[in-house]
Amino acid sequence: MAEDSQRNFRSVYYEKVGFRGVEEKKSLEILLKDDRLDIEKLCTFSQRFPLPSMYRILVWKVLLGILPPHHESHVLVMMYRKEQYMDVYHALQVIRFISDSTPQVEVFLRMHQLEAGKLPRNPAFPLEAEDEVFLAIAKAMEEMVEDPIDCYWLVNCFVNQLHNKYKDSLQQLPKVLEQYLNLEDSRLLMHLKTCSTMSRLPYNLWFKKCFAGCLPESSLQRVWDKVISGSCKILVFVAVEILLTFRMKIMALNNAEKITKFLENIPQDNTDAIVSKAIDLWHKHCGNPAHLV
Amino acid sequence: MAQQANVGELFSMLDSSVLDMEDITAAFKDNLNSDRGPMLVNNLVDYFLESNSQQALHILSSLQEPHDKHLLDKINEYMGKAATRLPTLSLLGHVIRRQPSWKHKLSQAPLLLSLLKCLKTDTDVVVLTTGVLVLITMLPMIPQSGKQYLHDFFIIFGRLSAWCLQNPGHVPEIYLVHLHASVYALFHRLYGMYPCNFVSFLRSYYSMKENLETFEEVVKPMMEHVRIHPELVTGSKDHELDPRRWKRLETHDVVIECAKISLDPAEASYEDGYCSVSRKICTHLKHHQTDLSASHYSDTLSSYGTSTPNSTPRLTLSQMPGQLPQTLSPQSMQLSTEPQQVMQLLGVTIWSPSVTCGMTTPPTSPGIISSESSQTSSQPYSKFFGTAGGKGTPLGTPATSPPPSCISDDFVHVSPPSAAATPHKKEDKPDPGRPSLSRQQNVINSEKALEAPGSKNSVPLRDLPEFLGGLAYDEDSVEKDKEEDAISKEISEITTDAEPMVPRGGFDSPFYRSCESLLGCQKKPQSIALGVQGHSLTSEHLTSSLDKPGPEGTRDTPKQAFTPIDKPSGGTGENPAGNGESQTSVETSILTPSPCKVPAQRGIELGSWQPPQYEHLFEVALPKTAYLFVSKKTEELFKKAKGNLDEDCTCSTSPVEVLDRLIQQGADAHTKELNKLPLPSKSADWTHFGGSPPSDEIHTLRNQLLLLHSQLLYERFKRQQHALRNRRLLRKVIKATALEEHNAAMKDQLKLQEKDIQFLKLSLQKEQARYHQFQEEHDNIVAQLHSQIRQLQHDREEFFNQSQELQTKLEDCRNMIADLRLELKKANNKVCHTELLLSQVSQKLSNSESVQQQMEFLNRQLLVLGEVNELYLEQLQHKHADTTKEVEMLQVTFRKELEKAKFYVQQQSQRLDASQKRIIELESQLAKKDHLFLEQKKYLEDVKIQARGQLQAVESRYKAQKRITQAFELEILDLYGRLEKDSLLRMRKLDENAEAAEVAEERPDCGNEGCADPMAGYSEEAVGRNGETKPPSTHGSSNSKGGSSSELSTPEKPQNQRLGPFGSRWETTVSLEPSSSVPLTVGSLPSSKSFLGMKARELFRNKSESQCDGEGAVTINSLSDTLKTELCKDPSMEVKTLPGPENPSPSLKNQESSVGQLRIMDYNETHHEHS
Q1: Nearest CA to CA, how far is B953 from chain A (Å)?
Q2: Which are the contacts of A80, defined by CB distance < 8 A and separation ≥ 6?
Q3: Looking at beta carbons, which residues of chain A come within 8 Å of B1111?
Q4: Which long-range contacts (CB under 8 A, 24 or more apart) does A119-126 make?
Q5: Residues B946-1004: pLDDT tens digits?
Q6: What's the superkingdom here (chain A) (predicted)?
Q7: Domain end call among A163, A178, A193
Q8: Which of B949, B974, B1111 sits opposite A77 (nearest CB)?
Q9: CATH of the domain at A77
Q10: Quick one: A30 and A139 in the same domain?
């Protein structure tokens, strides 16, 4: 609270006028200045405000546990991470799963598989559904993060988080989506139900892949901010907002396949707006984000 | 065609059978209703013109609307022909006089034009006269059309008036009289309807010189008979022609309007304000006439006996009868044709004022009319017509004209001769002159009644009954008295009005009259029948009928027969007649026609006697207005009676009178001649009279007859109009009467109500007085009660005050009681207190007493003790001892000891202080250290966390490494699997070559190995199939197999081979000196042996190389580090446990060189672990 009182008294007005993120950056810097970073506070901050892109990777790494809270050990730990990466990479090379020509994403996948002990006997073995999800997320992450080591670690930890922490809640998301869609636009829901589309919406793309490949990375990272900071419900609201935004088109379509097809390939032009609205909607419906899971 | 035939039949039937006339007429009417064509009407007109059929005329005159055009067209057609003009005109006259509903169309019909043209051009006097009469009849029906034809009317008037004078057609003078009369009527009509226009026409027309003579001779005399028309003053030419003026007036109104302005007693009708004036004039006229008649009479008297028919004196003589019979004929005609209608007319007129007027003179006449009107039809006729026609009497208005006046006229008329012959009064009866005169009159009357076409009314009829009565006298003079008695009784019974008359005389004049009429009706039906069919009879019939009385009696008998008529006729004045009947003396006086006596008698009768007799009746029967009216009339009568005396008048006779006289004279002459001559010689002797040829004479007479007929019809028409008028006036009077009575009733009611109101007011006042009284009483009582109340209230207040005082007193007492109680309580307290005190004091007293006793006892002891003390003092003084030195010594010692103790205490306290300070120091140090510990702890925690983070990273690394190794192992195993497969295949080939030699040698070993071999092979295969499923288990077996297989395959180095697997185990553990040899063995083994070995070696080398190349020194270091740690931990422990003598130092030494070895060892160790 002491920090808040020290904050610029204009911050209130900034927000009113619509400048977002003016104060956030400073407060984030203050947060990051702490030795032994407070993970809780970072979580809350990231849920409440959009992260400045310059700190995003750092915050993500801290939140995902790639980096420890102490600044001192950052270098050391990062060194370890790098060595591990290199080891795994080397091992994969040795067992000839990857080569230099192997695309980075697949490299990540193989490394992940190796680390998870799920490496198939043969690289020619067909990919499983999990691997598809990983690939999609990795591909998105690759766009966001330049350093392959960071990228690998982020993808790895992100996927692990999805699998471990959100495993149960992810399965509940379709129901939650229906509930909130009913609140927002019951007619649309009725339409979708009459078309029997509700069960056939691209839940895989939306919830398992966390919109990777659905939204452009610039929008996607804002969603992932929330996901990484501990809330997977944001995915539901993004989905709801997508439905609401393309309401007219969906209403015009009567076929479940067509709707699904359309939703899988939504236009990429105003996704930023969709995400902003989705976040607003999320705030509106879930109140204090700090208590969201 | 059938209809044509039918019509023909109808025409044939029309006159054939008179019996079913009604049916035929109905048939015609049906035909007319069904057929709208002109055919039937035309046929009818033709038929009428041919046969002069009365039925046809009747049907034609009652034609209805749609046929009028055809009829008018047809009449117009025949009007154009000179031959049929006259009958056509008469037909037109008949039709018009019926006043058909379509009469207004006449003004537009071309017929009117042709009629006017005819009147303007025709030269036949008969036609002209008839036409003019038709025109005159038509004029009031179409008054508004006069505008168009007005000038034509005037021209016609001018032409005809000139005609009268100049006589261009040289027609007989007798026609001119008729023409003159009709022109006179036309003059009246035109002057009455369009005075301004007509006067202006006269002015312009007769200003011309050629017309001046006509004016002087014809028009001017006519003008003497009219008054100044009021329209001349108020109206104008345009106003006269205004249709609005005529809209309000009906036909009869117009006729009456025209009659009003006439001064001619024959024409005039007196109403309203005109009466007095016209009456005066008329009386003048009358006197003049009477004068004339008197003179003529004297003439006749003088020329008595000659009996030559003189026209002039007859004219003058017959002036009065001429006047009287004015309204004669219709009676007879109506009697014949429409008796019922007449009765209706009578029914209306019965109640008319005329009847009441009749009452003024003979009260019985109304009685008769009311009771026996049907029987005595002639009587009401006489009454009615007498009044309506005015009988030429000056009383004029039918309502008031009293019969006495006419009687007086008769009387006057008769009186001059009687006056002249007063001395031979008795001779009057036998006197032939008088009877002849009277007879002649009567004859003329009857003749008129029978043949005259005019519209003369009642008086001749009245004369007729008289005449008949006279006849009755003649024949039944004996019976007369008896019958009269009987009838008088009857009538007296029937008529209540007659009762007052009864005491006056048994024979009242009305009664007498009724007798006459009754007799006339009963006894002489022939004569009535004769009169009934009078107008349809020819002159010959007439003469024959007239002959009847003639043959009845001789020349004398008629005279004698007529003598009694003379009496009544002379005394037709009822009163004189009645008197005459009752008192002979009076009769004589009446019959002696002294001019002085009669008025005197009249005066007596009307002024003193009679009026009072009836006035009271009037008051009962009529409202005041009527009474006033009647009284007015009676006054007029007086005046008239007085006026009898005046004898000068300059008025000329009117053309009508001239015509009348002419007719009378003609008729007179006719009868005379007829009577004189025997019938057969009539035709032969025609020349004897006028010298003219008989055919001419007949023609003239016929024409004359026609003229008279038309005149008669015209007069009848006028009479009808008058009748209409009368009915209307009568209705008005009745209404007025009713209103008057209503008014009177209302007034009575008003009075009654006023009385009621007054009575109510009185009672109100009474009630008010009572009310006031009650009020006062009430006030008194109220005042009394008020005073009582006041007194009581005052008492109450006093009592209230008293009670209040008492209450205050009561409260005071209560307070006092309370105070007293308080005091009582206090006193009680005090008493208690004092008692207590008393008891205390008593106790104290007792105590003090005991104390005193003790004191006394003690005092004694004291005394005793004192004595003892003195005793002891004495003993003490005796004894003295000294111990002070010892005490001082003791004190000194004690002081020294005290100082010592003090010093010691000081020392002890200083030590205590020091130790306390030390404790504080130590405590602060302790706190510092605690703090330090805490910080250290925190730091430690921090570090721990940090370390944990790092450790996590490291762990993850380690895990990764583990995975990597696993992957590697897998790979390696995989490779091994492949290798063994290959070698197995090669072994089988070699076995086949060196089976025998080796089997013997290696039997014991091979037994074991061989036994194990297939198993190993199998397991190897299973491993190859299963992959990684059982790596640890396979490892061991594979190793052993591998060893065994290599042993088998390489017989040159069984030691090594054997040692390899076993040695690798044991060498590494037991002795590590030949560290370099181990790699050699490893590296040399496969190369020397086979391709597979080469491969394996290559693999190892590659691996080591790659390790060296890829990671460099750092990686080697790191690896060594890791290995070091691993070896420090796991293998060392294992080594320690398995083989006892084992030290880590050599391993540390050889760590660089024997990485791969270590690996293998490690590998093996892991194997061990697994196994």
Answers
A1: 6
A2: B950, B953, B954, B956, B957
A3: 90
A4: A119/B963, A119/B967, A121/B970, A121/B974, A121/B1027, A121/B1028, A123/A96, A123/A97
A5: 888 888 888 888 888 888 888 888 888 888 998 999 999 988 888 777 665 555 454 44
A6: Eukaryota
A7: A163
A8: B949
A9: 1.10.8.680
A10: no
Which of A61, A62, A73 has the most B C-beta neighbours within 10 Å, making it the best mutation to test the interface with B? A73
Which domain does A35 fall in, by range? 14-70
Confidence of residue B12 (pLDDT cuts 50, 70, 90): low
Q: Could you tell me how far CA B675 lies from the centroid of its own chain? A: 84
Q: Do the beta carbons of residue B326 and residue B265 sit within 8 Å?
A: no
Query: What is the predicted pLDDT for the residue at B1170?
Result: 44
> Is B1084 a residue whose pLDDT tops 60?
no
Shared domain check, A53 and A30: yes
Domain annotation covers residue A91: yes
If asked whether residues A91 and A27 sit together in one domain, one would say no
Tokens of B937: 């702890």
Does residue A8 lie within any of the structural domains? no
Evaluated on CA atoms B828, B833, B834, B840, the torsion sign reads positive
Q: Which chain B residues are within 8 Å of A90, Cβ to Cβ?
A: 964, 1110-1111
Q: What is the pLDDT of residues B893-952, one digit of tens each?
A: 999 999 999 999 999 999 999 999 999 999 999 999 999 999 999 888 888 888 888 888
- CA-nearest of A262, A136, A236, A255 to A183 is A236
Distance from CA of B944 to the nearest CA of A (A): 11
Backbone angles phi, psi at B226, to 5 degrees: -125, 155
Name the 3-class secondary structure at B658: helix
Residue A250, SS3? Answer: helix
Residues of B in contact with A65 (CB under 8 A): 952
Q: What is the domain-level CATH number for residue A54?
A: 1.10.10.750
Question: Which chain B residues have any C-beta within 8 angstroms of a chain A C-beta?
Answer: 942, 945-946, 948-950, 952-954, 956-957, 959-961, 963-964, 966-968, 970-971, 974, 1027-1028, 1103, 1106, 1110-1111, 1118
Indicate if A56 and A121 belong to the same structural domain. Answer: no
Average pLDDT over chain B reads 63
Are the beta carbons of A69 and B967 separated by less than 8 Å?
Answer: no
Q: Could you give the CA distance from residue B1043 to residue B114 in angstroms, rounded to a whole number?
A: 179
Asked which of A164-168, B532-536, B795-799, B910-914 is least confident by mean pLDDT, the reply is B532-536
Asked whether residue A50 falls in the same domain as residue A81, the answer is no
Residue B1019 pLDDT greater than 90, yes or no:
no
* Tens-place pLDDT, residues B358-413: 443 333 333 333 333 334 333 434 343 333 333 333 333 333 333 433 333 443 34
Domain count along chain A: 3
Contact: A73, B957; criterion CB under 8 Å = no
Looking at the structure, do residues A43 and A95 belong to the same domain, yes or no? no
Contact (CB<8Å) B1028/A83:
no
Residue B863: band (very low, low, confident or very high) from pLDDT cuts 50, 70, 90: very high
Highest mean pLDDT among A66-80, B556-570, B724-738: B724-738
CATH number where A232 lies? 1.10.472.80
Report which residue type is found at B248: R
B946 with A80: Cβ contact below 8 A: no
pLDDT at B40: 77
A275 and A176 share one domain: yes
> With a threshold of 0.80, does the pTM exceed it?
no
- CA-based nearest distance A109→chain B, Å: 14
Instruction: Pick the last residue of a domain from A34, A55, A70.
Output: A70
**Residue-level pLDDT at B1131:** 43
**Residue A291 resides in a domain:** no
Residues A176 and A273 in one domain: yes
Q: Name the residue of chain A whose CA is nearest to B1027's CA.
A: A121
Non-local (6+) Cβ contacts of B586 within 8 A are B576, B579, B580
CA–CA separation, B609 vs B504, rounded Å?
11
Phi, psi (5° rounding) for residue B262? Answer: -85, 140
B758: pLDDT strictly greater than 90: yes
B contacts of A114 (beta carbons < 8 Å): 960, 963-964, 967
